[in-house]
Amino acid sequence: MTYETLLYEVDGGVATITLNRPDRLNAFNDVMRRELLVLFDEIDADDDVRAVVMTGAGRGFCAGADLGSGGDTFDAGARGRPTDRTNRDGGGTVSLRIFELTKPIIAAINGPAVGVGITMTLPMDVRLAGESARIGFVFARRGIVPEACSSWFLPRVVGISQAARWCYSGRVFDAAEAGRGGLVEVVPDDELLDRATAIASEIAVQSAPVSVALTRQMLWRGLTFDHPMQSHRADSRAIQSLGSMADAREGVTSFLEKREPSWSLRPSEDSPDIFPWWEDPEFS
After folding, report:
1. Which residue, 70, 151, 196, 197, is the most exposed by fewest CB within 10 angstroms?
2. Which architecture characterizes domain 6-203 according to CATH?
3. Measured at the alpha carbon of residue 120, what is the angle toward residues 199 and 8, in degrees to the nearest 5?
């Protein structure tokens, strides 16, 4: 499929998504939102994709919401959207879809990442930022509040105090501060995409794709659990399911034979359903 606001390629099991509105610093609009949702569905359906990297075209990652509508930018009624409780934040639909993704996803943040440009990365598994990146949770300076589920994700990523400082002030800060705050790993600008691709490639080659898909959901969903027993139940169900499948045999055999593994299970077809365990009367 051809996209208007995105570039997409797959090489060696690694999919690279490039936000592609460089004339607008890749500002987020509704076309980009819809295309990202379609593309994530495509990625989950493609078992040749083992890991994902997202970056931005040109000199920025994403400058946040496209402010081309001026003062009406965040006015749902002025934009013809519902004004009752059925209205949903567009960035939130993207963040929730990333949360549900079965493939690990790495942000390679080049240049500015502001507003939704940074909040959409919070449900990603790894965030790398080039040394020249500039980041801002600028909502309070625009008269609105954090969106894209960031009030849930950000405190879990960096802690409540750091999240509060960045969100209350709304200021833009450099990559070094983001690194100190635990939001990103800072790398030289000219190594950014190579480093992100290397991380994705290691996952794509060495790790069983169904194992990664389940592990990703266990880690993220585990953030909602209120007792380790819930994780124990999910772990137990997953180990029981995968332990009798082909990739478990291949993982052990390839290790003992000192060779690269050859995984045969496919996330789109072979992932056991371990969630929601609490709805299964036989697993209590």
Report:
1. 70
2. Alpha-Beta Complex (3.90)
3. 60
The pLDDT score that the predictor gives to residue 63 is 96
Coil, helix or strand at residue 93:
helix
- For 246-264, how does the pLDDT look when each residue is reduced to its tens digit (9 = 90+)? 999 999 999 999 999 999 9
pLDDT tens, residue by residue, 122-139: 999 999 999 999 999 999
Per-residue burial over 41-73, b = 16 or more CB atoms within 10 Å of its CB, e = otherwise: eebbeebebbbbbbbbbbebbbbbbbeeeeeee
More confident residue, 174 or 233: 174
CATH superfamily of 207-279: Lyase 2-enoyl-coa Hydratase, Chain  A, domain 2 (1.10.12.10)
Q: Write out the two tokens for 210.
A: 């169904």
**Facing residues of 182 across strands?**
none
Could you give phi then psi for residue 206, rounded to 5 degrees? -90, -25
Q: What's the predicted TM-score (pTM) here?
A: 0.92
